[in-house]
Inverse folding.
C-alpha cells in the first residue's frame, strides 16, 4: 500500500476475492459458443484466443518467477544481495489483477470497436507501425509519466506502493495501484488502438507486443543479470535501445535515476542515467555461485508439493502446506513433473538465507515421500543423498543437515552410512535428533506424570523415552514388542517404563503409524505431540495437536518468505535448526548414525542463538 493511498487505489473486484475471474465469464462463454456453433466464415478466432493468451501471460510470468527465485538462490549474477520477507510476498500476491484488467478491456474492445475483431495472423505494416510507435511516443511519454510519478504528491499516493520492494522479483513489475495501471494501459494502448483504427491490426502485432512488454518487465525486475556484456560490444547502440536487470535495479535502490521504460536513451538525453549502471552490470555478471556454510537437505512430499515450494507459486509457498482443490485441475502439469522426477531426478537448490555471518541454503532431492517407502527406490535415493553430501564437501560446506525422510534407520542408518563410507568427509553430517528430542521434551506440559508413546520407534523416540524415564515421568506403551525394544535399549532396569492396557493418558507422544482408530480412543482434551518428521492426520476436534518438532526463528534470519512444509511462518524444523546451531557452535563431530549429542547442551545453545520454543496448543 502507498504511504498515503490516493483515489482508485484498490481494484474494483477486490470484494470478490478468489471469485474475481467471474467478470470475464460472460465473454469467455460467448466467444467459445460462437466458435463452436457458427460457420467457419463467421467465426471470430481472434476474440476466442483472448482467454488462451491471458493464460499464456500467467504462465509466462510464473516461468520468470521460478527462474528468478532459482537463480537468486544460487547466487551467480545476483544483483542486490538482500532478501525479501513475507510482507513483500503478501503485497505482491495479486499480480494477476493486471492480466484480468487487460482481459476485460480486450474483450470490451473486441466487441465494440470496428477493426478489433477477426484479426489476420500477420500484417507487415502493422508490425512495423507497432515498433515505431513504441520506440517513439510510448517510450517518451512513459519516461515523463514515470518522472511525474516520482513527484512527492503522486509518489506518496501511488508509486511508493511499487517502490516498497527494494529487492525486486519479476512480478514486482506489475504491482501498482489501480489508478496507475489505468495510466499504463492507456499508454500501451497507443500502438494497439492506432492499429485498430487504421485497420492494420494483426494477431502477431497485438499478442507479440504484449508478450514483449511482459518479457521486458519481468527481465528488468528479476534481480539477476542475464544480458551478456559482449552483446553491447558487438552492437554498441544497443545500450540505448535495451535496458538490463541491473540498470533497472538501480532505479529501485537509488529512486532518482534510470526512469526509462525499456530503452534507456531518454535517460541519456535528459541526464538521469545512473553513473553506476555499467559498473553494476559488470560486477553482477562476475558474481559467482554462492557456497553456503550450512546446507539443509530435504525432498518433495506430495505430488502437489511442487507448487508449495519457494520456486513454485509464491503465495502458496508463503503459507503452511495445505491441499487446495484448484491444484487438482492442474493434474497434467503435476503428472508431468512426477514423471520428470522419476526419470531425471536430480538435487536442486530451493532456498537461501543468511543468519549473522552464516550463509544458508536448502537443497531438495527430486523424490516424493511415497518413493521412500519403495524398496527398489532406496538405492537411487541413497545415491542422490550421497552425491549431494559429496558435492557439498567439494564446495566447502561446513555442515549438512538431513531433513524429512533423508535420514532413517532402514534407509541409511540415520545418515551414518555416508560417514562410515566416507570417513574423510570435512562436511559435518547432522541428523538433528538431539534437538528434536529437546523440542519434544519442552513441549510436554509441566506437571505431566505419564505419557503414552505411540508410533514407529525411531532414534528420537528411544531418546525421548529414556530422558522422560530418567526424569521420573512414566512412559506407557500399548504394545509388548515396543515395550521390549525400549527396555532393551535402556541397558538398565527402568521402572518408569510400563505397558498400558487403557488409553487414559492426556499427553500422547506420537510418530508415524498412529491410526485413526487409536486417536478415537484418546480421552477428550488429549494433547498429541509428534516426534516424527510428518504430522499425524487430525481426526479429533476435541483434542489438541502440537506441530512437529520446530522452533520460531530469530528475526535476524534474512530472506525468510516461504514456509517449511506445514510449519507456520518463520518457523523451522528442529532438524534444520540443528545444522545451523552445529555450525554456530563450531562443533567438530558428526551427529548421525546411532550417536547423539548432549540434549541439554544442544537445547541451551539453540536458545542462546535466539531460537524460541513454540507455545503448546490449547
Amino acid at each position: 500500500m502507498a504511504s498515503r493511498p490516493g483515489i482508485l487505489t484498490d481494484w474494483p473486484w477486490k470484494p470478490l476475492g478468489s471469485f474475481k475471474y467471474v467478470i470475464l465469464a460472460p465473454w469467455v462463454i460467448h466467444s467459445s459458443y460462437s466458435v463452436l456453433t457458427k460457420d467457419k466464415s463467421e467465426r471470430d478466432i481472434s476474440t476466442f484466443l483472448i482467454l488462451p493468451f491471458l493464460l499464456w501471460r500467467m504462465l509466462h510470468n510464473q516461468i520468470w518467477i521460478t527462474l528468478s527465485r532459482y537463480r537468486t538462490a544460487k547466487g551467480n549474477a545476483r544483483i542486490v544481495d538482500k532478501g525479501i520477507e513475507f510482507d513483500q510476498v503478501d503485497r505482491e500476491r495479486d499480480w494477476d489483477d493486471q492480466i484480468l484488467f487487460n482481459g476485460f478491456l480486450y474483450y470490451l474492445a473486441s466487441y465494440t470497436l470496428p477493426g478489433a475483431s477477426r484479426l489476420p495472423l500477420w500484417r507487415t505494416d502493422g508490425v512495423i507501425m507497432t515498433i515505431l510507435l513504441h520506440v517513439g511516443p510510448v517510450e517518451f511519454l512513459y519516461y515523463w509519466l514515470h518522472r511525474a510519478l516520482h513527484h512527492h504528491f503522486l509518489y506518496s499516493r501511488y508509486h511508493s506502493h511499487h517502490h516498497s520492494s527494494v529487492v525486486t522479483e519479476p512480478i514486482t513489475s506489475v504491482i501498482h495501484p489501480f489508478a496507475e495501471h489505468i495510466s499504463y494501459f492507456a499508454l500501451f494502448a497507443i500502438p494497439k488502438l492506432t492499429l485498430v483504427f487504421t485497420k492494420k491490426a494483426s494477431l502477431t502485432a497485438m499478442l507479440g507486443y504484449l508478450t514483449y512488454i511482459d518479457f521486458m518487465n519481468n527481465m528488468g525486475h528479476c534481480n539477476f543479470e542475464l544480458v551478456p556484456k559482449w552483446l553491447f560490444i558487438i552492437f554498441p547502440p544497443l545500450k540505448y535501445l535495451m535496458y538490463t536487470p541491473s540498470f533497472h535495479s538501480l532505479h529501485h535502490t537509488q529512486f532518482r535515476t534510470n526512469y526509462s521504460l525499456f530503452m534507456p536513451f531518454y535517460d541519456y538525453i535528459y541526464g538521469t542515467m545512473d553513473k553506476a549502471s555499467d559498473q553494476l552490470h559488470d560486477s553482477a555478471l562476475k558474481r559467482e555461485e554462492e557456497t553456503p556454510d550450512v546446507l539443509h537437505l530435504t525432498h518433495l512430499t506430495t505430488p502437489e508439493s511442487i507448487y508449495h515450494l519457494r520456486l513454485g507459486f509464491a503465495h502458496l509457498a508463503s503459507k503452511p502446506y495445505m491441499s487446495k482443490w484448484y491444484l487438482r485441475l492442474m493434474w497434467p502439469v503435476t503428472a508431468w513433473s512426477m514423471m520428470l522426477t522419476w526419470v531425471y531426478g536430480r538435487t536442486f537448490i530451493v532456498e537461501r538465507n543468511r543468519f549473522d555471518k552464516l550463509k544458508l541454503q536448502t537443497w531438495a532431492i527430486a523424490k516424493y515421500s511415497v518413493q521412500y517407502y519403495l524398496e527398489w527406490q532406496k538405492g537411487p535415493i541413497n545415491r542422490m543423498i550421497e552425491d549431494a553430501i559429496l558435492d557439498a564437501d567439494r564446495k566447502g560446506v561446513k555442515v549438512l543437515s538431513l531433513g524429512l525422510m533423508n535420514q532413517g534407520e532402514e534407509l541409511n542408518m540415520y545418515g551414518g552410512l555416508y560417514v562410515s563410507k566416507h570417513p574423510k568427509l570435512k562436511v559435518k553430517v547432522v541428523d538433528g535428533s538431539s534437538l528434536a528430542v529437546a523440542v519434544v521434551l519442552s513441549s510436554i506440559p509441566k506437571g505431566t506424570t505419564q505419557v503414552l508413546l505411540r508410533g514407529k520407534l525411531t532414534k528420537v523416540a528411544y531418546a525421548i523415552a529414556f530422558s522422560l524415564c530418567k526424569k521420573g515421568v512414566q512412559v506407557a506403551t500399548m504394545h509388548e514388542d515396543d515395550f521390549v525394544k525400549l527396555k532393551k535399549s535402556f541397558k538398565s532396569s527402568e521402572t518408569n517404563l510400563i505397558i498400558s492396557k487403557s488409553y487414559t493418558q492426556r499427553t500422547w507422544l506420537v510418530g508415524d503409524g498412529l491410526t485413526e482408530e487409536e486417536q478415537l480412543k484418546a480421552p477428550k482434551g488429549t494433547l498429541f505431540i509428534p516426534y516424527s518428521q510428518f504430522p499425524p492426520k487430525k481426526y479429533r476436534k476435541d483434542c489438541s495437536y502440537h506441530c512437529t518438532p520446530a522452533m520460531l526463528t530469530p528475526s535476524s534470519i534474512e530472506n525468510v518468505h516461504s514456509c517449511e512444509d506445514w510449519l507456520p511462518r518463520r518457523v523451522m524444523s528442529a532438524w534444520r535448526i540443528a545444522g545451523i546451531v552445529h555450525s554456530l557452535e563450531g562443533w567438530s563431530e558428526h551427529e548421525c548414525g546411532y550417536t547423539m549429542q548432549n540434549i541439554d547442551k544442544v537445547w541451551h545453545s539453540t536458545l542462546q542463538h535466539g531460537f524460541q520454543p513454540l507455545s503448546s496448543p490449547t
Notes: The longest strand covers residues 348-355.
